[in-house]
Task: inverse folding
């Protein structure tokens, strides 16, 4: 089962990852802001992730690490 | 007695560079130094070195920056207008603390100027042709033998201080031929390792960065201060000059490079006529030999700076004689060279 | 636990200086991924330009030199001549490569210098706040073309791949884009091919990467990708412009 790990304080809130997730589960965390003052990207419904890596591929800041447990 | 070769200045300089570990030369044709590049083109391949004619002097000096940053002994040569083009690169090289040798076979200026001998790049060489606080070691040979010896010194001191060094000749020195001796080629492996160079980390060390950009003013000022501590050491240890008949001299001529030989001929004539005239010949234009001027200005009443320019080194003579002596200037420019009679006449006029 | 995706080793684990959504960050990662996958981090020497990526020396783990504006190909030449067995690449923007550095890039190609050039084309001067670049499109509004770039005043945008592919020394030239996941994968393949070209000593290789500048284009990051597709791609067609890598 693939799992997304967000290095949240490196996220600049550009949202590009959210535009490419085929399952629409990568979203911006509206409930918090990171060290840079942005809403960081995060994942909801992690279990729906298919490990396609689109989000990480599109991210300009290497915020997203993807592992498989 | 080592073997003597009758050689043109430009070529002797190239030969000396290669014998002193220079394996990379990036140049561009410009009279009156082009024979240096042509000599390198012929000989470098024979010793496994690289000669490359760049698309411009700007490209050439940046190739020097890259090669020096990669740890090699590297040289470039040009003449006045070419050195102007290279001045930005020279500032970067000084700012990145990179050793290299830059040759300027000076020609009449400004602008495209002429192709005959001149010394009108003194300010450019010693007061900074490029931007920012930096200095070049500047060597001014007066003979082909000295040109060869100072080439060895330039490479040695450039590496020692991690600083660009300039050899400033003039059109005559580049073109004329004189017998000259060469030292044996040095063994490259004897050169000190440059652990700061970009050679590839081989995954064994942290990355090396060759850079001159410091957006934090604190950092940039700190580096400037550090560099000026280095320059202070150079000013203390590295000045070179020659003195002739200065002990009892009433009037001291100051001249460097080929025109100092003309001045010496004039002085010898005057000495026979009983004039107490001497010569101070700076060999390093930076660091300028300040102490000897400070010293001799206590005894000599007058100084006469003779240059192939409209008067540039004379300002340093004035500065270093501290108002104790009268300082005069006599010069020709645009490629004109004074004869010894002209200098004799001038000295008699102000003696 | 198996790792499906992570920061490449040769890409420093720092926050880079690029604006949110600027695709410089993606291109940096692709270069680092290729270098990791070829196992050449220890033998790579990079050259950073002047422009937004001037501080690229902070973002990579291998040796790197910062070059004067436009002179990276000359600096790379100097390095490559000293270390012919090392991997030498320049990372340059459109102002650096196609304005002040035009002579250096043309002659590095003409000499077929065995180096790789990563040329990031975002049709604007980003670092200095959004001025016209040599690749700014006709009609494009910038700080120095406030009424839109006019042909009669500022002429036409330069097509670098087409220009350089006429130079005999060019061994491999391709234009790619990082506007979508699919194109990012193709861009990586092109960068890999360019580094292989250098590895096999085939001569000069260049990959032009169409990239965005959300801040100075005045667009949201995803809108900027859209703008790139609709406006830049028609003028800068993607594709291979020359490939002599199989020629011995």
Result:
């Amino acid at each position: 089962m693939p799992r997304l790990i967000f290095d949240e304080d490196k996220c600049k809130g550009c949202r590009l990852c959210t535009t490419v997730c085929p399952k629409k589960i990568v979203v911006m965390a509206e409930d918090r802001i990171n060290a840079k003052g942005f809403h960081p990207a995060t994942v909801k419904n992690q279990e729906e992730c298919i490990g396609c890596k689109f989000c990480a591929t599109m991210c300009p800041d290497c915020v997203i690490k993807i592992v498989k447990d | 007695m080592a073997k003597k070769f009758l050689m043109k200045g430009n070529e002797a300089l190239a030969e000396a560079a290669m014998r002193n570990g220079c394996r990379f030369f990036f140049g561009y044709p410009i009279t009156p130094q082009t024979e240096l590049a042509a000599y390198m083109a012929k000989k470098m391949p024979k010793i496994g070195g690289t000669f490359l004619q760049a698309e411009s002097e700007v490209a050439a000096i940046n190739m020097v920056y890259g090669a020096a940053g990669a740890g090699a002994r590297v040289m470039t040569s040009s003449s006045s207008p070419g050195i102007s083009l290279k001045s930005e690169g020279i500032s970067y090289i000084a700012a990145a603390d990179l050793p290299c040798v830059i040759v300027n076979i000076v020609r009449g200026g400004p602008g495209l100027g002429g192709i005959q001998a001149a010394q009108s790049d003194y300010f450019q060489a010693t007061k900074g042709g490029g931007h920012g606080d930096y200095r070049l070691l500047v060597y001014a040979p007066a003979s082909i033998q000295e040109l060869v010896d100072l080439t060895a010194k330039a490479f040695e001191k450039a590496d020692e201080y991690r600083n660009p060094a300039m050899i400033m000749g003039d059109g005559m020195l580049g073109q004329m031929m004189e017998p000259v001796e060469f030292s044996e080629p040095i063994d490259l492996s004897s050169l000190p390792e440059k652990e700061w160079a970009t050679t590839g980390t081989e995954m064994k060390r942290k990355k090396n960065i060759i850079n001159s950009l410091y957006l934090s003013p604190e950092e940039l000022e700190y580096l400037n201060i550090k560099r000026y501590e280095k320059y202070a050491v150079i000013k203390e240890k590295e000045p070179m000059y020659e003195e002739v008949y200065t002990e009892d001299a009433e009037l001291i001529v100051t001249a460097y490079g080929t025109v100092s030989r003309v001045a010496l001929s004039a002085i010898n004539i005057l000495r026979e006529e009983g004039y107490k005239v001497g010569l101070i010949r700076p060999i390093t234009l930076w660091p300028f030999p300040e102490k000897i001027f400070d010293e001799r200005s206590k005894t000599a009443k007058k100084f006469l700076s003779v240059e192939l320019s409209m008067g540039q080194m004379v300002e340093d003579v004035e500065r270093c004689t501290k108002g104790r002596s009268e300082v005069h200037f006599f010069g020709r420019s645009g490629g004109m060279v004074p004869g010894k009679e002209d200098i004799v006449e001038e000295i008699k006029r102000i003696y | 636990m198996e790792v499906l995706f992570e920061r490449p080793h040769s890409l420093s684990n720092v926050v880079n200086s690029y604006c949110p959504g600027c695709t410089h960050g993606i291109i940096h990662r692709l270069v680092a991924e290729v270098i990791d996958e070829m196992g050449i981090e220890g033998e790579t020497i990079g050259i950073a330009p002047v422009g937004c990526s001037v501080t690229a020396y902070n973002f990579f783990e291998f040796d790197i030199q910062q070059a004067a504006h436009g002179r990276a190909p000359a600096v790379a030449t100097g390095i490559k001549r000293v270390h012919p067995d090392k991997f030498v690449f320049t990372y340059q923007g459109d102002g650096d490569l196609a304005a002040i550095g035009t002579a250096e890039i043309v002659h590095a190609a003409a000499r077929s210098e065995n180096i790789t050039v990563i040329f990031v084309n975002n049709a604007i001067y980003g670092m200095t706040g959004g001025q016209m670049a040599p690749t700014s499109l006709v009609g494009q509004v910038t700080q120095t073309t406030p009424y839109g770039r006019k042909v009669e005043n500022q002429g036409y945008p330069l097509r670098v791949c087409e220009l350089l592919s006429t130079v005999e020394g060019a061994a491999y030239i391709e234009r790619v884009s990082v506007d979508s996941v699919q194109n990012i994968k193709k861009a990586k393949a092109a960068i890999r091919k360019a580094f292989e070209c250098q590895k096999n000593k085939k001569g000069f290789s260049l990959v032009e990467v169409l990239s965005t500048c959300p801040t100075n284009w005045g667009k949201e990051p995803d809108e900027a990708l859209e703008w790139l597709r609709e406006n830049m791609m028609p003028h800068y067609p993607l594709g291979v412009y020359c490939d002599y890598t199989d020629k011995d």
